[in-house]
Amino acid sequence: MKKRPSCILKGCGLTLMLFGICLLCWLIFAWPQPRKEPVFLPDLLVEPEAFPAGWTLEANREWETVPERALVDDFRAAEGVMRFWVPPGCPNPPAYGQTPDCRSAWHIILRYQNSIQATVAFYSNLPMALRGISKREKPKDWVYRSPIADRFRFACTRECWWEGCYPPPGQYTYCAAVAQYDEFISILNVAMFRNITLSDIERIVRDIDERVGKALSP
C-alpha cells in the first residue's frame, strides 16, 4: 500500500513528459520559418514571357489569391497565389462550352509555415496537380531536375478526365512540375494540346527556378 503514491507520481510524471514531447513536436511543426527579408509570393510566379508565343494571361489578370477553401481542403497551406494562361487561338477570357483543347495552363505558389509542413504536404497531398489521373509517367525525353529545389517531381498523363476530350494516340494531355523550395511549393500544370512542347515546359521550369532562387537567396 505504501508504494501506491510512488506509482501514481511516476504515472503522472510520464504523462507530463509525453505531453511535453507532443507539445514540442507541435511547436516545431507549426512554428513559422523566419526570414531576414519578407517574400512577396507573386514575385515567385513564372512570367508570361517564359511561355511560347501566343499564350496570354487569362483575362489580363496578373495574379490572384488561391481561394481559402482550396488552401485548407486541398493544399493545407498558409497562403497561395496563382496565375493562368490561355493557349493561342482560344477565347480570352475562357468561354462557356469552349473546346477541351483550350484548357488553360496554371502556376501556383504555396507558402507553408515552415519547410517541415511543406515536406509533409509534398509527400502526403501531392501530386495534387494530377489528382484523379491514374496513369502518370515521366517522359523519356525529360532529363531536367531542379538544381535548387529540395524536392522535385515531373509527370505527364495521356488520359483525359473531362467530357468531350479525345486525345490523339500517344500524345500527352497534361504535364505537371511540382517543386518544394524551403517552405514554398510550386505547381505548374500545362495542357499539351496547343503550341507547346516538353522543351517549352523545361524553359518554363527553369524560369521558375531562377525566380525562386533570386527571391530566396540570402
The H/E string reads: HEEHEEHEEEH
Task: Identify the CATH architecture of the largest domain.
Answer: 3-Layer(aba) Sandwich
Can you tell me the number of structural domains?
A: 2
Work out the number of β strands. Answer: 7
Poorly predicted tracts of residues: 16-31
Strand content: 15-25%
Shape: globular
Return the CATH topology of the largest domain. Protein Transport Mog1p, Chain A
Q: The biggest beta sheet, please?
A: 7 strands, antiparallel
Name of the CATH first level of the largest domain: Alpha Beta
Rg from alpha-carbon coordinates: 22 Å
Structural class: alpha+beta
Count of helical stretches: 4
Mean pLDDT: 82
N-end to C-end Cα span: 63 Å
Level of helix content?
25-40%
Quick synopsis:
The protein is α+β, with helices and mostly antiparallel strands and 218 residues long.
Structural topology:
Layout: H1 4-30, E1 56-57, E2 64-65, H2 68-75, E3 79-86, E4 105-111, H3 115-124, E5 151-157, E6 174-181, E7 184-191, H4 198-216
Antiparallel strand pairs: 1-3, 2-3, 3-4, 4-7, 5-6, 6-7
Write a structural description.
The chain is an alpha+beta fold and 218 residues long. Strands 1, 2, 3, 4, 5, 6 and 7 form a seven-stranded antiparallel beta sheet that branches. The protein is 29% helix and 19% strand. It folds into two domains: 1-30; 32-216, Protein Transport Mog1p, Chain A (3-Layer(aba) Sandwich), CATH 3.40.1000.
List its salient traits.
alpha+beta; 218 residues; globular; 29% helix; Protein Transport Mog1p, Chain A; 4 helices; 19% strand; 7 strands; single chain
